[in-house]
Design brief:
This protein is mainly beta. It is 0% helix and 57% strand. The protein has no helices and 9 strands. The strands form 2 sheets. Strands 2-3-8-5-6 form a 5-stranded antiparallel sheet, with no helix packed on it. The chain has a 4-stranded antiparallel sheet with strand order 1-9-4-7, with no helix packed on it. It is globular.
Length: 102
Amino acid sequence: MHTIRLRGAWETVASGGTVCHSRNFGRPRSLDPGQRVWLVCDRLPGPARVSLNGTDLATASHTGPFAADITDRLAPRNVVVFSVSSPDPLGDVALQIRGPGD
């Protein structure tokens, strides 16, 4: 497994009790056959809606870790948005490149 951390360059906007954390990123360039790209967050601070490129990806009703396979939804350039019902900070976010055995 290979991890690409999405640090820095996050835009955070609060409105009406929801905090939106958004960030642009590029599609990983070299994926081997069978590898999948997962979006992972080590801690959602509250219930959240996650979108990728303007399309809802998932809804999490809990605080804690989050992970979703985004391989089939990736474009050359992407934007991810975590809309969280908490003012607390979002945990570390990364892309994990996982092989068939990971």
